[in-house]
Specification:
heterodimer, A: 113 residues, mainly beta, 57% strand, globular, B: 111 residues, six-stranded mixed beta sheet, 11 strands
Chain lengths: 113, 111
């Protein structure tokens, strides 16, 4: 099973809402990632969790708050987002952060009104 | 600063043609070079990857050519099919930490 699942597939939220994105993998991977992707652009790394600890935060605004409750789950909590935060949010995982192959989920299409 | 430069931005070929997508990098510390394929509304999927100790790698109809001295690598798609129409991203990483993606190439294969 090389699948990374993400829920929800689509999310529309207002600027005052609080919502969460969820990512799950059952491959035994110990590194998990959040990326943001705008249309026709490459994915931009936001956060890296290695062995359930935040190892990289690419200067992401605090309105995005990641959480890794266990080695299979990764959440991204959203609060007070801006319309420019509308994008495809991708989760990925790899065996560990020093291994090369990252497996991406299908993404959550987020629209901020 | 773009760590990995990718060209062309878009590419249209006839079915059966061999589209070639090129990428170039400057950082000689990069040691892993994957290519990802992405369909609209989907996440990127790893297509094929190469390390700098080999000059070519083939997997099915996909071939990576790697030129270490020129710091360039390219993706060739043999006998391209309409189902190959997608956006392709090259990437580079050091020890699997932090992937640097190219800007993407939108490929259209005309039946």
């Amino acid at each position: 099973d090389t699948e990374v699942t993400q829920t929800p597939k689509h999310l529309v939220m207002g600027m005052t809402n609080k919502k969460s994105l969820k990512c799950e993998q059952h491959m035994g991977h110990r590194a998990m990632y959040w990326y943001k992707q705008k249309a026709k652009k490459p994915p931009e790394l936001m956060f890296v969790y290695s062995y359930e600890k935040l190892s990289i935060n690419e200067s992401v605004p605090s309105r995005f708050s990641p959480e890794c409750p266990n080695s299979s789950l990764l959440n991204l909590h959203l609060h007070a987002l801006q319309p420019e935060d509308s994008a495809l949010y991708l989760c990925a995982s790899s065996q560990d952060s020093s291994r090369d192959t990252q497996y991406f989920g299908p993404g959550t299409r987020l629209t901020v009104l | 600063q773009q760590q990995v430069k990718q060209s062309p931005q878009s590419l249209i070929v006839q079915k059966g043609g061999i589209p070639i997508i090129n990428c170039a990098y400057e950082n000689t510390a990069f040691d892993y070079f994957p290519w990802y394929q992405q369909f609209p509304g989907k996440g990127p999927a790893l297509l094929i990857a190469i390390r700098p100790d080999v000059s070519e790698k083939k997997e099915g109809r996909f071939t990576i050519s790697f030129n270490k001295s020129a710091k360039q690598f390219s993706l060739h798609i043999m006998d391209s099919q309409p189902g190959d129409s997608a956006t392709y991203f090259c990437a580079a990483s050091i020890n699997g930490n932090q992937f640097y993606f190219g800007t993407g190439t939108s490929l259209t294969v005309i039946p």
